[in-house]
Design brief:
alpha+beta; two-stranded antiparallel ribbon; 30% helix; extended; ILV_EDD_C; Phage dehydratase
Length: 123
């Protein structure tokens, strides 16, 4: 999740990339999980942390370890009518560093993967 904009009172979080489908932590969340969003107004840095449930609170570090071993939510799947440009964007992200880099592509890595695929297919 990235902060998409901020106003005078609070940051506005609203953009979630498709990292859930790539096995990212957001795809491992369940109903009743508690998420902590912390923003330092002086340094303009922030974090989004899974901190357990009301019955089983966790530190951010414990939450990260739990999400690392959790399976992706069983109901999670790509929409049948996902637009081609979205699918292409996800593929480009997948071969150039993943969703963790946002919309920053590694052009050289993408070209390297395409060329390797062409070679493997004899194109």
């Amino acid at each position: 999740m990235r902060a998409s904009r901020a106003c005078r009172r609070a940051a506005c979080f609203g953009h979630v990339s498709p990292e859930a489908l790539a096995g990212g932590p957001i795809g491992k969340l369940r109903d009743n999980d508690i998420i902590e969003i912390a923003v330092d107004r002086l340094t303009l840095t922030g974090s989004v942390n899974f901190i357990g449930t009301a019955e089983h609170p966790l530190t951010p570090e414990e939450g990260a370890r739990e999400l690392a071993v959790r399976q992706t939510h069983p109901d999670l799947h790509a929409h049948d009518f996902l637009p081609d440009d979205t699918r292409l964007w996800a593929a480009l992200q997948s071969v150039s560093g993943g969703t963790w880099k946002g919309c920053i592509y590694d052009t050289d890595k993408i070209i390297e993967v395409i060329n390797a695929g062409k070679k493997a297919l004899g194109i």
